[in-house]
């Protein structure tokens, strides 16, 4: 695997113990806990487990792409500060806790595959509790049928609950931690047929259900969505960044890439944003779109049975 040089110092990132559950409100010098790059922490029993991602520099994007979906121009992006990223995608159980605590209503309707029509249809009887016919997602599976607006509501609640800066990843941060130092088409290399060792994608078993387009010839042991953490983590210790479900990011979609920003922050527009960027592919996605460079674009109100999200947290 080709590896980019990641600018990581031997620095230890020090967080006051008040950032962790059940610890002293006013820590002394002796009560500081040191968390290094790669360390994991969790701020409450139902909070997402977080992994500290190092600062670094990488080449974002790729040449070409699909028609009307360019992945370039390629550009150098610098992530100047460490941040924490969710070890897993947000699960249905974690989202259930949020809904129970806030009575938040995601509303009816979710796009799901219609075998009869051989297309994706918005069907009002489906939602995050039952995303498709006869299916209720398990608590340890990623929550789906949530819009960008729903994801934003969740991170706002999580930030208020913990007192810390939880949010969606920017598009640059997402590609940075998805690549985890790799300069190849996929985090594991350039061969798409190795995918079943590393991710839950549109494989031979899924193709038996939808028959929509050419599938990976291997079998990844899950015909539909998989519980989180069933495949090896990437080099940063993050699971399911490729495949399983698409992940909403903060950015307003713009193509080709604008010249700014190149510091890892999100691209936004003045006024309403027509499309938000989604990343990472899913169990029902063509292999070309599973690459870290590929950029999805969807209205922020869209809900789909292959759309979920992951959170990040700012570190002080």
Tally of structural domains: 1
Low-confidence sequence ranges: 1-33
Question: Which structural class best describes the helix and strand composition?
Answer: alpha+beta
Number of helices: 4
Q: Can you tell me the CATH class?
A: Alpha Beta
Major beta sheet, specifics? 5 strands, antiparallel
The gist of it:
The chain has 316 residues and is of the alpha+beta class. The chain has helices at 92-102, 148-162, 171-179, 204-210, and strands at 13-15, 33-35, 40-41, 50-53, 56-60, 65-66, 69-70, 75-79, 83-86, 110-114, 119-123, 166-168, 246-252, 276-279, 296-298, 307-308, 311-314.
Summarize the structure in words:
- The protein has 316 residues and is α+β, with helices and mostly antiparallel strands.
- The chain has one domain (13-314): paralog of FGE (formylglycine-generating enzyme) (Alpha-Beta Complex), CATH 3.90.1580.
- 13% of the residues lie in helices and 20% in strands.
- The strands form six sheets. Strands 3-4-9-17-12 form a five-stranded antiparallel beta sheet. A four-stranded mixed beta sheet has the order 15-14-13-16, with helices on one face.
- The chain is globular.
């Amino acid at each position: 695997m080709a590896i980019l040089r990641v600018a990581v110092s031997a620095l230890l990132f020090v967080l006051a113990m008040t950032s962790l559950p059940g610890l002293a409100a006013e820590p002394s010098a002796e009560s500081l806990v040191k968390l290094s790059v790669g360390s994991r922490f969790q701020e409450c029993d139902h909070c997402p487990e977080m992994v500290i991602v190092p600062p670094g520099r990488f080449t974002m994007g790729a040449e070409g792409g699909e028609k009307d979906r360019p992945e370039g121009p390629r550009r150098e992006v610098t992530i100047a500060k460490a941040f924490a990223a969710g070890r897993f995608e947000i699960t249905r159980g974690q989202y259930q806790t949020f809904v129970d605590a806030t009575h938040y209503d995601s509303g009816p309707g979710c796009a799901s595959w219609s075998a009869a029509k051989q297309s994706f249809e918005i069907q009002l009887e489906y939602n995050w509790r039952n995303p498709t016919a006869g299916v209720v997602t398990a608590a340890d599976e990623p929550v789906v049928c949530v819009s960008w607006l729903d994801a934003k509501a969740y991170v706002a609640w999580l930030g208020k609950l913990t007192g810390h800066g939880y949010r969606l990843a920017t598009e640059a941060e997402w590609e940075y931690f998805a690549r985890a130092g790799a300069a190849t088409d996929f985090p594991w290399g350039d061969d798409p047929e190795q995918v079943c060792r590393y991710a839950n994608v549109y494989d031979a078993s899924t193709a038996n259900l939808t028959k929509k387009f050419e599938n990976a010839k291997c079998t990844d042991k899950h015909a539909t969505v998989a519980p989180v953490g069933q495949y090896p983590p990437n080099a940063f210790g993050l699971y399911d960044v490729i495949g399983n479900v698409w992940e909403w990011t903060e950015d307003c979609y713009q193509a080709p890439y604008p010249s700014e920003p190149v510091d890892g922050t999100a691209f936004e527009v003045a006024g309403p944003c027509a499309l938000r960027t989604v990343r990472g592919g899913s169990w029902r996605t063509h292999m070309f779109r599973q690459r870290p460079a590929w950029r999805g674009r969807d209205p922020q109100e869209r809900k789909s049975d292959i759309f979920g999200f992951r959170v990040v947290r700012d570190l002080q």
